[in-house]
Amino acid sequence: MATLPGTLLLFGYALLFALVEIEIEGKNGWAMHLPTWFRRKPLYARVYAFLLSGKPLTGYHAVMFFIPLFSFHIGLAFGQPWSWGLEARVLASYLVWNVTWDFLWFLLNPAFGWARFRKGMIWWHGGPWLGRLPIDYVNALWMSFVVAALPWFVRGNTWHLRHHAIYVATTLVLVAITALAAPLYRRWYLHMRRPGSDERPSLPTSSETAR
After folding, report:
1. In the chain, pLDDT over 70 holds for what percent of residues?
2. What total number of domains does the chain contain?
3. Residues contacting 47, CB < 8 A, separation 6+
């Protein structure tokens, strides 16, 4: 029970990230239709693609990678003492959090849902899959346990690994609960976009603005 408040906070954070990305991207994932740069050929983009199973690098993702990573360390700016064990716990949680954030985007997005979360239907998850999971998810999960186990390997301290296992198990339960509620959100999402419901004012065109 001691780990539950932190797990709920991280899950809520992942859920909010997923929801705001659905609002930003809609059905066009991986920033395909956003006004951001998109690279495959430069060396830095090829390194990124190598690490993430062929995914292109965009300006959007270059920024979004660091926002949660910084926020996971925000406690250190307010007096939380740093340690190698704490860093291992933070990074392990971050790896799982990224998977949670990404999967919730698909689960809640009306253009996808669980039914369309499968190999061949998501171009940016075009690498290998293990069953119903992209290889990036699988890699992040096993890497998170390796990172969480580092204090055990170095000092014989199993606390961080046990905490991480509870965190992952609780997150899976929360994802399952969200999956049950996802159809309600998807209906609300479509309802808010029904024809004739938008109340945006008409904006002048670029040619009118230039005059």
Report:
1. 96
2. 1
3. none
